[in-house]
Design a protein that fits this description.
The structure is a single chain. This protein has 308 residues and is α/β, with parallel strands linked by helices. It is 54% helix and 23% strand. The chain has helices at residues 2-29, 45-56, 68-79, 103-130, 134-161, 170-185, 199-212, 278-306, and strands spanning 35-42, 82-88, 95-102, 189-194, 216-217, 225-237, 245-257, 263-275. It is elongated. It starts with a helix and ends with a helix.
C-alpha cells in the first residue's frame, strides 16, 4: 500500500510539473501585458474550451451593470475571446484549454467611447471659455460633471483590458477639469452665522458645496451668494428614562443673493438624538442636522444657478 501511495504521489507530481511547464510556455507566448487569459480543464476537450471561455467572460463581473451602450461595448470585447491553446495531461487524462483576449483589440473597441465623451467635454470647455455670463459658464460646468462620471466608469473598464493603464489621454482630461474649476471659481460664496458658530454643521454644509466644486469663505469684499446659518439647540432630560438626555439641533440655512439680500432658498432640518451624556447628545444631534441639511443646500444652490 505504501508503494502504491508513493507511486500515486509521484504521478501527481509529474502531472503538476508537466502542466506547469506548459503553462509557463503558454504565458511566454501570450504575455499578460498583451493578453487577458484564462485556463480551464474538463474530462472532454470541448467542455474544457467551453469552461475557459466561460471563465474569461467574467472579465467585467466586478463592475456595476451599465446602460445598453455600455453592455454592448463590453459584450463586443468578450466576443473577441478565442481559444488559443488546448492540451491533454497524459497523467490525469484531463483536457486543458486557454482562452485569450487581445488587449490591443479590446482597447480599440473601448476607445471610441472615450472619444465620444471627450468630444462633449471639449465642447463644454470651449463654451466655458467663450461665455461672458459667469452663471451660464457654471451651468456648462455642471453638465461636465456627469460626463466626468461617465468617463470614470469607462476608466474602470479600461483598467481591466489595458493591463492597469488607468488613465486615457490624461492631459486632455486635466484641461477639461481646469476649465470646469475656472468657471466655478468665478462664483464667490461666503458664509455668515447668526448666534453661535456651529463648526459641526458648518463643515457638513461647506463640504457639500466643495463637493460641487465651489469654494466657501468668510466675508470677502466681493461675493455672489451668502450662506446664512443659524443653529438652534433644545436640550432636556428624558421624562421617562433616568439619566437620558435629549437634544434637538435645528439647522436653519438661508441662501441669499449678495447683491440685494434676496433670499432664494430656505432650508430647516431638526434632528433629535438621545444619549446618557448630555454633551454627546448635543454633538450627535448637530452631526445629524448637518448631514440632513447639507445635501438640501447643495440641491437648492444647483437649482438656483440652473435658472439664471
Amino acid at each position: 500500500m505504501k508503494k502504491l501511495l508513493t507511486l500515486s504521489f509521484a504521478l501527481l507530481l509529474i502531472s503538476a510539473c508537466s502542466n506547469k511547464h506548459i503553462l509557463v510556455k503558454n504565458a511566454e507566448k501570450y504575455p499578460a501585458d498583451k493578453y487577458i487569459t484564462k485556463v480551464a480543464y474538463a474530462e472532454k476537450k470541448d467542455q474544457a474550451k467551453e469552461n475557459a471561455l466561460k471563465d474569461i467572460k467574467t472579465l467585467y463581473a466586478s463592475l456595476p451593470k451599465g446602460d445598453s451602450y455600455t453592455e454592448a461595448r463590453r459584450q463586443a470585447v468578450l466576443d473577441s475571446a478565442k481559444i488559443v491553446e488546448t492540451w491533454k495531461d497524459k497523467i490525469n487524462k484531463r483536457y486543458y484549454a486557454m482562452a485569450a483576449i487581445d488587449r490591443e483589440q479590446a482597447k480599440k473597441i473601448t476607445e471610441p467611447a472615450y472619444a465620444q465623451i471627450d468630444g462633449k467635454l471639449k465642447n463644454m470647455a470651449n463654451k466655458i471659455g467663450q461665455e461672458q455670463n459667469k452663471w451660464h459658464a457654471v451651468q456648462y460646468a455642471f453638465a461636465m460633471e456627469e460626463l466626468f462620471k461617465e468617463r470614470q466608469g469607462l476608466d474602470s473598464e479600461y483598467a481591466l483590458i489595458s493591463h492597469n493603464e488607468t488613465a486615457y489621454q490624461e492631459n486632455a482630461l486635466n484641461d477639461f477639469k481646469n476649465s470646469r474649476a475656472k468657471a466655478l471659481d468665478n462664483i464667490k460664496i461666503v458664509y455668515e452665522f447668526e448666534g453661535f458658530e456651529d463648526k459641526i454643521v458648518k463643515s457638513k454644509v461647506i463640504e457639500a458645496l466643495n463637493d460641487l466644486g465651489f469654494g466657501v469663505s468668510e466675508k470677502p469684499q466681493e461675493s455672489d451668494i451668502i450662506l446664512h446659518m443659524n443653529i438652534a439647540l433644545d436640550q432636556f432630560p428624558s421624562k421617562t428614562t433616568n439619566a437620558l438626555y435629549w437634544c434637538t439641533a435645528t439647522a436653519n440655512v438661508n441662501l441669499k443673493e449678495a447683491s440685494n439680500g434676496n433670499i432664494f432658498a430656505t432650508i430647516s432640518e431638526p434632528q433629535k438624538v438621545g444619549t446618557f451624556r448630555q454633551e454627546e447628545a448635543q454633538r450627535r444631534s448637530q452631526i445629524a442636522a448637518g448631514q440632513a441639511v447639507a445635501p438640501k443646500v447643495k440641491e437648492k444652490l444647483v437649482q438656483y444657478i440652473n435658472k439664471k
